[in-house]
Design a protein that fits this description.
The protein has 25 helices and 2 strands. With 597 residues, the protein is mainly α.
Length: 597
């Protein structure tokens, strides 16, 4: 079978997702079973994968889905606990003391606090922390999810203390034993130094592309969820948004180039958070305090913006005591501290929390005799941290058991409908990426698709390499998995088109991060945390343009860098310049015809 036809067939599960979930706006609980059937039929009939392996991949998908549902439950429980204790009320008041302007609040919470949580834990944890926090503060659920998804870009490559690089790129490249010799030829006798070298390139591209992400988040919020549906109302805070971006990306890049891939997102987010909060309190580059931007009255919101789950409430317990701001924030400080402590490699708590002891790791090796294995480590899961912190909150906030019982009951009621879509989404992903080793002898579907694209693009590949990385994250739900699948392939394409292949691998990592913006099961999980059911396709429609921006400008920058020998005015830098010029034009003309009726 030709490479082109194989690539087209590999696209069919993704096309079915695009048609039913995004274009027709079906809920994921209806669209993803169709995508699953398409992927399973292709795996069996075309790739020649055995039925037992398809079932094994499906079972693995259900186990992964359960692990995500566990995290979702912990996040919902923590949110409801803080609502009952009165902490959310205090935090809301604290933000009002900094600024009641929702545009600034979303930058602080989603971009900076979210980046810090991504650096600490990764794997969708920012959505489980920052998104419900925004909902608790009075953001529409869909606005919170959209904001939480858009910022899943710049910090993701260094999420979970560098896991997408240290595990994803590392595993992908080290599959070829000749890579050690290549790294040594560049002067890197230690493999970790070579990974840090690639990480520096990843950080540079991210720092450049991430400059406009806070502005895009704010503009999306005002355009889609504002009373006036006005893009200009978001663009009005461009000075503060770009300042907030640089407050994160400059230390982020410096940490990446000096200390390696473990800490850029965590330290960049934390340093940026301190700088930006102080600046906001001082009024530096802030919008007019006399006219803070806010959402319309809740009764005027579009019904699809809000949670429809039974028991989901955003109201403070009527008899919850008032508390000081530090005490209100203390559960989030505990979360951040526990995530950092457990993920810090020098202390090696991972070996304790993920040990093969059956009480710590629940595993199913070689499911149904296949080469697919599944495991779940409850003590390592962020869900356990959320549950522990919710229990600590009882003591910290001096809650009565009746209040916690309300929070627990509400969370259990919301869990089943909030998680239904994941039961169909993740098995489809696992079937899609576990299609190697069939009787037809074809590469797994993602690689077959990438090879088809590479054969069409030739020397223009850097423009498309980020989209391939994004595609991997879109279907797999993970930048780490995307890097595992495609890093060695991207390296080989770089050698084939006679450019520095390490830059192409860096573009893969950046593209994989950008794919998280539209990743189906991340959208499903983030939506589930705040009870936004059946609107996953609507969310992806609203985040698709930010994904195109991020993957597009990153690919253009990469093309410009690898072809720098032909001059600074090459096609890559010209395209990147045009994208930046378009944004500058929108800022300059923000008050002209930008209010949508």
């Amino acid at each position: 079978m030709s490479t082109g036809l194989l690539a087209i067939l590999s696209m069919l599960p993704i096309i079915s997702v695009a048609i039913f979930l995004v274009l027709l706006r079906w809920p994921a609980s209806r669209a993803m079973p169709i995508a699953y059937v398409v992927a399973a039929l292709l795996a069996i009939a075309v790739w020649g994968v055995s039925i037992s392996k398809v079932l094994a991949a499906s079972i693995n998908g259900l186990i992964v889905a359960f692990s995500l549902i566990y995290i979702i439950f912990g996040a919902i429980l923590l949110l409801n606990t803080l609502i009952q204790s009165g902490a959310i009320h205090a935090i809301r008041q604290g933000f009002s003391d900094i600024t009641p302007d929702r545009r600034i609040q979303v930058i602080i919470i989603a971009w900076l606090f979210g980046s810090f949580i991504e650096g600490s834990a990764g794997f969708g944890t920012p959505a489980a922390v920052a998104v419900p926090l925004m909902v608790g503060l009075g953001f529409p659920a869909m606005a919170a999810v959209v904001a939480g998804m858009i910022i899943q870009s710049t910090p993701v490559s260094f999420g979970a203390m560098g896991t997408p690089i240290l595990v994803g790129v590392n595993t992908g490249l080290s599959a070829d034993p000749e890579m050690l010799a290549y790294a040594a030829g560049l002067g890197f006798n230690e493999w970790e130094q070579f990974l840090a070298f690639i990480a520096g390139k990843v950080a540079l591209i991210h720092a450049l592309a991430g400059t406009f992400i806070p502005l895009i988040v704010v503009s999306a919020m005002t355009r889609f969820f504002g009373k006036n549906r006005s893009l200009s109302e978001g663009l009005q805070v461009w000075k503060f948004a770009i300042f907030a971006a640089l407050a994160m990306t400059i230390p982020y890049y410096w940490v990446a180039t000096n200390f390696g891939p473990e800490f850029p997102s965590m330290f960049g987010g934390l340093i940026g958070l301190v700088i930006v909060v102080i600046a906001a309190k001082l009024g530096f580059l802030m919008p007019d305090p006399a006219a803070p931007w806010d959402f319309d009255k809740k009764e005027n919101w579009d019904p699809e913006w809000s949670s429809h789950l039974p028991g989901q409430t955003q109201q403070q317990s009527t008899d919850a005591p008032t508390m000081n701001l530090f005490l209100a924030w203390s559960p989030y400080l505990f979360i951040a501290g526990l995530l950092v402590i457990t993920r810090y490699r020098a202390w090696d708590l991972e070996s304790l929390l993920r040990h093969s002891n059956p009480f710590i790791t629940w595993s199913w090796p070689e499911i149904l005799g296949s080469d697919i294995s599944a495991s779940f480590q409850p003590l390592w899961s962020p869900g356990t941290i959320f549950i522990i912190v919710s229990l600590i909150t009882i003591l910290l906030h001096r809650m009565r058991f009746a209040q916690y019982k309300v929070a627990l009951g509400s969370s259990l009621k919301t869990l089943i409908p909030a998680s239904t879509a994941l039961v169909f989404t993740v098995p489809m992903v696992q079937v899609f990426i576990n299609t190697s080793g069939g009787t037809a002898g074809f590469e797994q579907m993602p690689i077959a698709l990438a090879e088809g694209v590479a054969n069409l693009t030739a020397s223009a590949w850097p423009f498309f390499s980020t989209f391939v990385g994004g595609l991997g994250a879109f279907v797999a739900g993970s930048n780490t998995v995307s890097n595992m699948m495609f890093s060695l392939f991207q390296f080989g394409v770089g050698e084939r088109i006679l450019v520095d292949p390490t830059w192409i691998v860096a573009l893969q990592a950046v593209g994989g991060a950008s794919g998280n913006i539209i990743c189906v099961h991340n959208v499903v999980a983030a939506s589930a945390v705040v009870g936004l059911i059946g609107k996953e396709g609507v969310v992806i429609r609203k985040t698709f343009l930010p994904f195109l921006y991020y993957a597009g400008i990153s690919g253009a920058i990469g093309y410009g860098i690898v072809n720098l020998s032909s001059g600074i005015f090459n096609a890559g830098f010209i395209v990147a310049g045009l994208i930046v010029a378009s944004i500058i034009y929108l800022i300059a003309t923000r008050d002209r015809n930008l209010t949508i009726p």
